[in-house]
Each structure stands twice: as C-alpha cells, then as structure tokens.
C-alpha cells in the first residue's frame, strides 16, 4: 500500500492520508494590467480620493474658525462636530485611496513563502529589504507625479484638524485652566452650608434629582451619584456637571487608610471621589461592595477607595481625585473645598 493511502473505515476503498499541494490557480490579469486607458482611469480615481481628503481637511479647519463657539447641535458644539467630520473624512480618503491604489495598480501576482525560523539570516534580510525597494518601484510613484503630489498633499493636510485646536491664540476655545476648576469651589447663595468653623461649602446633592444629602441618609455600603447642589441650567451646565460628578460611598471607618493631612476629608467613613477615570475620562461608577473597588467599564481600571482610590489594576496612571467633605450645621454633607487637583486624564500642562 502506498504511504499516501490508508484503508477506509467505510469499505475496501482507500482515501489519501495527505494531499499534494495543488499549487496556485492560474493568474488572471486585471483590466488595468492590460488596458492603459483603464490604468489611467484608476490613477485619476485615486487622485480624486486624495483630493477629497485634502478638501475635507481644509474644510474642517475653516469651519473651526468660521462657526461661532456658541453654536451647538443638540449638546455638541457645532465647530467641534465639523472638526471631527473633516478629520474623519480626510483620513478615510487617504485610506480608501491607498487600498484602491494597491489593489488596482500595484502588482497582484500571488506569492508563496514557506515557513522559516523567526530570525532570518543575513541573506534573507537583504532580500526582504530589496522586496521593499521593489514594492516602492512597483507602486509606480516615481512614474506617476499626479499620485505623488496627491498623496503628499493629503498626508500633509490631514493632521491640521488635530493640530489647529492645540495652537493657542488662533481663536479656538482651548483654555486648559478650566480643567483645574470645578463648581465645587463656588458658593452660590442658597446652596451652601455653614461648617462649625464658620466657613461655608457647597452641598452635595443626588444626581439627577438635585436634592441635598444628609449624612444620616448614607448607610454603610450605600452608594450615591452626586452633583453640586443648585447646578445652574445654563449653557455650560453639561460641561460643569461633567467635571464635577462624584461617587459617594460609606465604609466602616476602620478600613480606611488615610494620610494625616487627609484625615478631615471624609466624615465617619463617608468618602467622595471623582467619577471621571484618570485614564481617558470614562465614568467610573461600578462599585464592588465586598472588595471596596471602583471599576471603570471602558478599560477595566480599578481603584481601591479604602486606600485613597489608588490604582490596583488597569491602565490608569493615578488615583481618582478626592473631594474633601464635611457636615454643615443642619446635618447636610458639603464640600469643604474644590478638588485639590484637576480631575480626569493627564494633560500637557500637568506633570502627572
């Protein structure tokens, strides 16, 4: 019996133990391979896609300056939406053009490479380098100045929608000082409480009811989603709320690990931490009562609220900022001050 055959379990016939490599199918040339007019047509299509990318990038920059910052579509600033759309269409144009270029103009001959050890020898690496050079030659970029110019123009302008808001003094509202302040430090009349030392603090309120919270309402293990009491329903309501949202939890005071300088930031086991993840700003609102951990649902960063919300798992680089709290003369929880550090992810004007 041949080594390529083995007995069949269904009868006396034999079936192959393995199959010979059938090889590649016969190569079928594309229309652009055999018709010069078709090749030129594809070249113009690719150039058009690059041109669309250029126009989208320029339109995004123009819209960013031309649309007033107070114009909104729903809750989204119109200039920000235009910037994002321009950036997306610009990048999409480059990507689609590159794919169309490679599939319709570059060589599409099938090649087979046998598996080999992970580290190649010097000769193989030299061949690989030559293949890259051949690929550049195969793209025809040296012989196609139209595509070369379109590619360079699209690639050069595509980053503009990202760079323009980062350049100060060009008319954009990019004031990072706003990231260092929340309305917890404001004391509007009627929404504050007086502390025993005579100072005042903004009361903590349930989100979204805006009802102030008494310390006696918070039992051990309970969780409250908190906003500043009396948060104004003005045009910046959502911006201010997004920075100021807090998660309030009551623990057994014996499990808290507090530095001496933070001993008065909590009240009888009640602690308050920013809900904004220090990784990329997702809402941290999943509380594990048994482990006393707060979890971010986006990238699984985990914070230990018994130990000043330090990071115990995940990509977040620093603890959640703590809101110092106390109880006023009427028994309501109030913020002793604003957060002592900016909330949310790290940005370029802070060291960590």
UniProtKB/TrEMBL annotation:
It comes from the Bacteria. The keyword Membrane applies. It is a multi-pass membrane protein. InterPro entries: QcrA_N, Rieske_2Fe-2S, Rieske_2Fe-2S_sf, Rieske_Fe-S_prot, Rieske_Fe-S_prot_C. One of its GO terms (cellular component) is plasma membrane. Iron-sulfur subunit of the cytochrome bc1 complex, an essential component of the respiratory electron transport chain required for ATP synthesis. The bc1 complex catalyzes the oxidation of menaquinol and the reduction of cytochrome c in the respiratory chain. The bc1 complex operates through a Q-cycle mechanism that couples electron transfer to generation of the proton gradient that drives ATP synthesis. Residues 1-15 have a biased composition (Polar residues). Its cofactor is [2Fe-2S] cluster. GO terms for molecular function: 2 iron, 2 sulfur cluster binding; metal ion binding; monooxygenase activity; oxidoreductase activity, acting on paired donors, with incorporation or reduction of molecular oxygen. Residues 243-334 form the Rieske domain. Pfam families: QcrA_N, Rieske. Belongs to the Rieske iron-sulfur protein family. The chain crosses the membrane at residues 46-67, 79-101. This is Cytochrome bc1 complex Rieske iron-sulfur subunit. It is found in: Cell membrane. It comes from Georgenia muralis. PANTHER family: CYTOCHROME B-C1 COMPLEX SUBUNIT RIESKE, MITOCHONDRIAL. Residues 1-30 are annotated as: Disordered. Keywords: 2Fe-2S, Cell membrane, Disulfide bond, Electron transport, Iron, Iron-sulfur, Membrane, Metal-binding, Oxidoreductase, Respiratory chain, Transmembrane, Transmembrane helix, Transport.
């Amino acid at each position: 019996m041949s080594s390529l055959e083995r007995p069949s379990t269904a009868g006396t016939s034999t079936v192959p133990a393995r199959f010979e490599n059938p090889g590649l199918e016969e190569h079928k040339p594309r229309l652009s391979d055999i018709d010069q007019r078709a090749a030129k047509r594809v070249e113009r299509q690719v150039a058009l896609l690059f041109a669309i990318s250029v126009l989208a990038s320029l339109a995004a920059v123009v819209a960013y300056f031309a649309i007033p910052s107070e114009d909104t579509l729903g809750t989204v600033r119109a200039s920000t939406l235009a910037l994002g759309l321009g950036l997306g269409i610009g990048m999409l144009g480059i990507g689609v053009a590159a794919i169309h270029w490679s599939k319709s103009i570059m060589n599409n001959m099938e090649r087979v490479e046998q598996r080999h050890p992970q580290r190649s020898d010097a000769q193989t690496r030299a061949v690989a380098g030559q293949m890259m050079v051949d690929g550049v030659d195969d793209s025809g970029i040296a012989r196609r100045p139209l595509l070369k110019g379109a590619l360079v123009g699209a690639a050069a302008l595509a980053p503009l929608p990202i760079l323009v808001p980062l350049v100060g003094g060009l008319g954009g509202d990019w004031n990072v000082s706003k990231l260092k302040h929340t309305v917890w430090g404001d004391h509007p009349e009627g929404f504050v409480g007086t502390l025993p030392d005579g100072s005042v603090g903004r009361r903590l309120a349930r989100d979204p009811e805006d009802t102030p919270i008494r310390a006696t309402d918070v039992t051990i293990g309970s969780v409250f989603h908190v906003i500043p009491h009396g948060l104004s329903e003005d045009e910046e309501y959502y911006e201010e709320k997004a920075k100021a949202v807090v998660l309030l939890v009551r623990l057994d005071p014996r499990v808290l690990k507090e530095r001496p300088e933070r001993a008065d930031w909590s009240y009888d086991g009640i602690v308050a931490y920013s809900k904004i993840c220090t990784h990329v700003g997702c809402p941290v609102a999943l509380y594990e009562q048994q482990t006393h951990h707060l979890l971010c649902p986006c990238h699984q960063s985990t914070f230990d609220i018994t130990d000043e919300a330090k990071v115990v798992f995940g990509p977040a680089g620093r603890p959640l900022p703590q809101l110092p709290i106390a109880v006023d003369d009427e028994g309501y929880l109030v913020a002793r001050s604003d957060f002592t550090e900016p909330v949310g992810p790290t940005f370029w004007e802070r060291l960590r």
